[in-house]
Amino acid sequence: MRELGIHLRVYSTLAHVAEYAHQLGISTFQAFGINQTTRKLISYDRDDCKNFVRVRRAHFGSLYIHASYWTNLSSVSKPNYKIIEHELHLAQRYEFTHIVIHPGHATGAIDRLEGIDALVRALNYLIKKYANIYFVLENTCHGIHAIGSDLQDFFLIKSKLDSPERVVFCLDTAHAFVYGYDFVSENAQKEFIQLLDQTMSLDRIALIHLNDSHYGHGLKKDRHEIPGNGQIGYSALNSFAMDPQLYRIPLIVEPPELPEQELISVKKMLDEWKI
Ligand SMILES: [Zn+2]
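Structure for Xylose isomerase-like TIM barrel domain-containing protein, as requested:
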């Protein structure tokens, strides 16, 4: 069955999040390795980990930890892997299956190619060191020095990796839309899916972040909305989610911070995309 989930914020412990996700009735979830209340990285806690693993083994398959934005793997000036390595340690002990990463910005590089090379060096190093976890690169929506906003970057990244089988991709619909990709009309959607196949490859897309966008097409500004509450609209997102070429891919909605009652409505919306 297709995995359907929500990005959840951690206010106390990761075990609490896993229990809450199970209560909500979602089949997967994503979380930052950051406590939303303290704004600090979550550190390993033996009891919390034991409780988390018990719940995750009983109720979940794939689980996604989202790397923080404090790491920029495409920077050539000061590669610093300390935070992402902390997150990878945490992910492995808590048995997350995937780490979702924004490729970052080519800081200090002469051109974007140099940034892509820095990213590939970082991934080659981290993949060797951390087994049993997939690295998921997500498309972003920023300007010229950002890596992975232009989908063509993923084609290049794939061709340069030592172990390309460990790297898969996440397509965020809100990011693609505000970067300037159009998939609202039926024809545009067909062409967009073709482009996804030529760049990420459909069989390498491991996750869709099905988000609507607060900002309009091409504005390169990132603010998510629940499907139907933004500029893309429910109908385009629904047909994207249910496209026969994409319908096997797990879906995660990343809503803005919501009261519990509204999270329950998001869960009900997810049920529409069950297959
Ligand atoms: Zn996303």
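The chain has one domain: 4-271.
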